[in-house]
Structures are given as structure tokens and as C-alpha cells.
Amino acid sequence: MTPLEISGSLNVIGYGLAAIGPGIGVGLIFAAGIGGIARQPEARGMIMQPVYIGFAIVEALAILGFVLAFVI
């Protein structure tokens, strides 16, 4: 087994470990959104807009990590 094969495997393992962060982040974002809507149902529209923006940012970081796992 050459060192290149080993580093390729480590990149994929590293991305798998790094994907835990965005997964936790998405869970926390939607948990806060659902908790806010449970307290103030009439403010649903005002609460969900920042939730979707936060979700998009967290997922963009996850996709960036996915791309970097293959580039390096």
C-alpha cells in the first residue's frame, strides 16, 4: 500500500468526522426554531427566515469540507 492510498483514505475519514459538526449545527438550528415557534406561533414567518439562512450557511460549510476532502 502506497502512502498516497493511505492519505486518500484518511481524507475520507477526516470528512466523515468533520460532517458531525454540521449535523449537530443543523439540529441545534431547527431545535431553536421549533422552540421559538412553540412559544410564539404567530411569529412563525419571522422565525423561519433566519432558520433557513442558518441552515444554508451550515450546509455550505459541510459542502466545502466535502470538496476539500477530495482536493487535498
From TrEMBL:
Assigned keywords, A-Z: ATP synthesis, Cell membrane, CF(0), Hydrogen ion transport, Ion transport, Lipid-binding, Membrane, Transmembrane, Transmembrane helix, Transport
Residues annotated as transmembrane: 12-38, 50-71
InterPro entries registered for this protein in UniProt: ATP_synth_F0_csu, ATP_synth_F0_csu_DDCD_BS, ATP_synth_F0_csu_sf, ATPase_proteolipid_c-like_dom, F/V-ATP_Csub_sf
GO terms of molecular function: lipid binding; proton-transporting ATP synthase activity, rotational mechanism
Primary localization class, coarse: membrane
Coiled-coil stretches noted in the UniProt entry, renumbered to this chain: none
Subcellular location field: Cell membrane; Membrane
Residue span, V-ATPase proteolipid subunit C-like domain: 13-72
GO cellular component: plasma membrane; proton-transporting ATP synthase complex; proton-transporting two-sector ATPase complex, proton-transporting domain
Membrane topology: Multi-pass membrane protein
Top-rank taxon, per record: Bacteria
Cross-referenced Pfam families: ATP-synt_C
Site for Reversibly protonated during proton transport, residues: 59
Residues of the signal peptide: none
Homology family: Belongs to the ATPase C chain family.
Function, as annotated: F(1)F(0) ATP synthase produces ATP from ADP in the presence of a proton or sodium gradient. F-type ATPases consist of two structural domains, F(1) containing the extramembraneous catalytic core and F(0) containing the membrane proton channel, linked together by a central stalk and a peripheral stalk. During catalysis, ATP synthesis in the catalytic domain of F(1) is coupled via a rotary mechanism of the central stalk subunits to proton translocation.
UniProt-recorded name of the protein: ATP synthase subunit c
